[in-house]
Amino acid sequence: MAFGVYVHFPWCAVHCPYCDFAVSTARPIPQARYADAVLAELALRAPAFEGRELASVYLGGGTPSLWEPDQVARVVAGAAARFGARPREVTLEANPESAADAGRLRAYRDAGVNRLSVGVQSFDAGVLVKLGRRHGPEQAERALRLAGEVFEDVAADLIYGARRSTVATAAADAARLAALPVTHVSAYALTLDPEIMAEEVPFARMRREGRLPLPGDEEVLAQARAIRAGLRRGGLRRYEISNFARPGREAVHNRLYWVGESYLGLGAGAVGALLRPGQGGVRWSNHRGPETYLAAVEAGRAPSAEEEPLDPAAVERERLMLGLRLREGVPLSLVPEARRRELEPLRRGRLAVLGGGRVRLTSRGLDLHSAIAERLLP
Ligand code: SF4
Q1: Which of 123, 225, 236, 289 could form a disulfide with 231 if both were Cys (CB 3.0 to 4.6 A apart)?
Q2: Cβ(365) to ligand 1 under 6 A?
Q3: Nearest Cα to 372, choosing from 331, 338, 339?
Q4: Positive or negative CA dihedral for 155, 161, 165, 166?
Q5: Domains and CATH numbers, the chain
Q6: Hey, how many other C-beta atoms are within 10 angstroms of the C-beta on 233?
């Protein structure tokens, strides 16, 4: 069984007004102390993952490109040494400001990173301003060009459905990205669900108070279609609801989540899951505040804020729901017997394809993923 290590680096230059992640803007960043703590947490949690194959390391955040490359090197080497394997994929998330520096990018490559994921969001200056981002379109393009010279794989994130986003800006973003040395794109609609977002997230508060006009559902869907068409023309194929890749460049780490493999989450605010097929498992989330996290690990305690046992049925449900997000679909055996009568109408409606012992959603089906998964869940 394969698994991935996820390391959360919780510091950012600024807190973007739409972001609900575990993020701190406090300074100074305790660069070496945080790496020490992540390595100590690794030593605590690793025994439970013994006997599994380490496929990937993903350094996310926050903004892990604010972590000094020599500290990143310690963490990547520590994970590889602990599991006696060189992970196939080591990703570092970067903002365009810190990625537009060739020397720093080479230092990350020398630290073991082979995939850089750049938070572009948009190439439209007006959209970036409305999102509260500090970088401009030219800086993002420069970061991607430099990254293409240094790394085998370069990923980029796009946001659509934001203020000032239109079908035209979405199409232009996709075309510009596809013309750059980008091997993978994740494109997400800006979601600001006031029900689930923390009170203090500025955009969620503005939305609640009716002060943040956003494009309507039809418009957002049209923007998503424009992005898909532009990426497809540029050679990036949709392999998951919101993810696109050039052939053979699909994300190793994220795929682990979608097919229901385990992941070892480390760092403040990280989430991890240890799953055993047929036996259920456990999911934990760490303290979100860096100081609370550091204090727990430095006292020799696991820094979990919450632990949730998962029964076998819950694990199977998640595998079905998440697996249907992928173009490759799921084994038919994951669909409960009692729900299989739902498959034929889906096939006739061109929402799903059945064959080779698998169920796959079509492009139209992927757009209705939640409703379809609901019909197939036990
Ligand atoms: S840079 Fe990313 S993680 Fe940091 S605040 Fe902005 S959106 Fe959130």
Answers
A1: 236
A2: no
A3: 339
A4: positive
A5: 2-257 (3.20.20.70), 325-378 (no CATH)
A6: 12
b vs e for 286-303, b when ≥16 Cβ sit within 10 Å of the residue's Cβ? Answer: bbbbbeebbebbeeeeeb
**8, 9, 15, 16, best to mutate for ligand 1 pocket (most atoms within 8 Å of CB):** 16
Q: Which are the contacts of 362, defined by CB distance < 8 A and separation ≥ 6?
A: 350, 351, 352, 353
Q: Is the shortest distance between the CB of 121 and ligand 1 below 6 Å? A: no
Cα-to-centroid distance, 75 and ligand 1 (Å): 22
- Give the pLDDT confidence of 211-249 residue by residue, as tens digits: 888 999 999 999 999 999 999 999 999 999 999 999 999
Query: What is d(CA 160, CA 169) in angstroms, rounded to the nearest whole number?
Result: 9
Residue keyed to tokens 């409960």? 336
Q: pTM above the 0.70 mark?
A: yes
Amino acid at 291: E
Report pLDDT digits (tens) over 325-355.
Answer: 999 999 999 999 999 999 999 999 999 999 9
